[in-house]
């Protein structure tokens, strides 16, 4: 079942290990609301940045990200194994 925007927004405060990152994500959410982006876009964008913040943990904030490798490590965790993709295509 798809997650509602209100549930995603509640996760900003309740599940993030870094209050600094939670504040940054909340500012990002307020910006998206003020620019009139759709709730669907807001929800998907927030899900990604919340997952990234959780990946960073409590000791690293978004302000500490200075090299693309720091982001690439997170993105690499989202890549599905090639073998799995081939099995699904062959079904």
Question: What does the model show?
Answer:
It is a single chain. The chain has one domain (about 5-90). It contains five helices and no strands. The protein is an all-alpha fold.
Order of helices and strands: HHHHH
Helix content: 55-70%
Radius of gyration: 15 Å
Number of strands: 0
Number of helices: 5
Average pLDDT number:
89
Please identify the structural class as seen in this structure.
Answer: mainly alpha
Give the amount of beta strand, in percent: under 5%
How many domains would you count in the coordinates? 1
Shape label: globular
Largest β-sheet summary: none
N- to C-terminal distance: 24 Å
Weakly predicted, low-confidence segments = none
Annotation keywords:
mainly alpha; about 70% helix; single chain; about 90 residues
Summary of the model, kept short:
By secondary structure, this protein is mainly alpha-helical. 68% of the residues lie in helices and 0% in strands.
Layout of secondary structure:
Elements: H1 5-14, H2 19-34, H3 39-56, H4 68-76, H5 82-90
Helix pairs in contact: 1-3, 2-3
């Amino acid at each position: 079942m798809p997650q509602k925007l209100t549930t995603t927004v509640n996760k900003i405060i309740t599940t993030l290990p870094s209050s600094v990152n939670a504040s940054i994500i909340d500012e990002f959410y307020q910006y998206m609301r003020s620019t009139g982006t759709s709730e669907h876009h807001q929800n998907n964008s927030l899900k990604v940045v919340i997952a990234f913040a959780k990946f960073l943990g409590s000791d690293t904030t978004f302000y500490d990200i200075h090299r693309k490798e720091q982001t690439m490590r997170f993105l690499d965790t989202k890549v599905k194994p090639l073998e799995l993709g081939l099995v699904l295509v062959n079904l």
